[in-house]
Amino acid sequence: MVSLAIGCIASTAALAAAFVFLGGGKLRRRPLPPGPRPLPLIGNVFDIPRSNAWERFIEWKDLYGEVVYISILGRSIVLLNSVKSTTDLLEKRAPSYSDRPQFPLIKVGHQWNFGFKPYGREWQSLRRTFTSQYNSMATLRSFYDAHRASATTFLLNVLHKPEELSNHMRIRGAQVIFEVTYGISVQSWDDTLVQTAEAVMDVVSIALYPSMWIINPISILNSFPRWLGGGIVAARVRRWQADLENLRNAPFEVVKKSLATGTAKPCFTANLLQELETSSENNMNEGIIRDTAAIALGAAYETTFAAGEVFLLAMLLNEPVQGSAQREIDSVVGSDRLPDFIDRERLPFVTAVMKEVLRWHPPAPTGIPHELTHDDMYEGMFLPAGSIVMANIWGLLHDPTMYPDPFTFDPSRFIRDGKLDCTKNDPSRFVFGFGRRACPGRLFTEDSLWLMIAQFLAVYSISPPSNGGPPPKAAFTSGAISRPLPFKHVVRPRSQAAQNLLTQLAQGQ
Predict the structure, then answer these.
(1) 439 labelled binding-site residue
(2) What phi, psi does 39 have (nearest 5°)?
(3) Local structure of 415: helix, strand or coil
(4) Which positions bind heme (predicted)?
(5) At what angle do helices 286-317 and 192-207 cross, to 10 degrees?
(6) Strands 415-416 and 419-420, how do they pair?
């Protein structure tokens, strides 16, 4: 079996080489973008780093230019490392750059996920359903109470167990998205639905990492005999598939049952199911509603949690910034209530902190790649059809020409004349994707993150431990979804007035 697996790999490499040498002759005649020199047969397999790929891609920009070409087993990959190239291709030429590659590990069970579906009518229908609930101002305002409830739970959880800050942030992210999507209240990290969502998104983060875009380790490892781990791999794949189906179906069935008994809360799923029953001119069906709800849950849960942890680490490492935001809150809101959405326009520095959190370390540093559907030419460089095209989001957000001193956490870069001004450097333009594949949940995510930041800073301060240990540093996981590595901290109410406010909050529950 081992020899069979090796033979399969060799055959795949030989076929890829034959394509490039024989069928891919036109690629050789037209100038491809520059990039690291590939090895025979396998291409640039060993050039993709195991960690922090986004940093290596920026190094390649310095060596080869803003558009970099690599290949893996004959598959072309185009890396975009500038705002100009990303805008020119993924936005201005969106019709040719809006498809998705077929990621080997995603094919295991994500065929229903419109985020990974090919560009076309089915994708457009699913996205339209999603956008109808997560991108209109009226609907976004209807979610405010869910944001407030999750923020309140977070603040009180921190008060009772400040040492479990990371788990509290996880619960906050899960609570708000389960509430607005399914009307389900989750209170504990041990909740089965939360555990399932966490397991699914951990695997997705691996599946979308650059080294997994083409190579399918499952196919190889499944060829191994049981004593070399083949059976373990098969069992894990079955578990992942089961988790995916549970995430897709279990909360949806809860909503259907609650509608039948008249106990359903207003939420994404209940609203659309009721609309399906009452409207005679409706292109939706239960499958569309179920699948778009599951997508909302998975995407929002992980990005909300990751961005929240980045905020906490940024405040830990930048206490002067923390103090500036707190002084703004004190001067505008006072100390007898928590900041709310009505205060947003009068708290520009707090909003700038939120924007800088997204810029300093975006939740998905390399984003989700696009696929080019037609041969294209760009600034004299040939881009072959079928290429995987990736915008290095982290690289764009650390471009010193747009963000001077990019490794410094500096919200003031978004403040001009005392007002918030992101007209030329809004990081959300890049963080949430590009062109027709841009995430429609951007405003929802920003609302959730802003309220958590404003209310946390109103009542808490976070600082490094004073026990003389090594100082904390900015270090992050390396998956497609990246968040801070565990860090030590001290969190405490920032004043007696803050303590009183937290006490009142607890009594009101």
Answers:
(1) yes
(2) -85, 155
(3) strand
(4) 439
(5) 80
(6) antiparallel
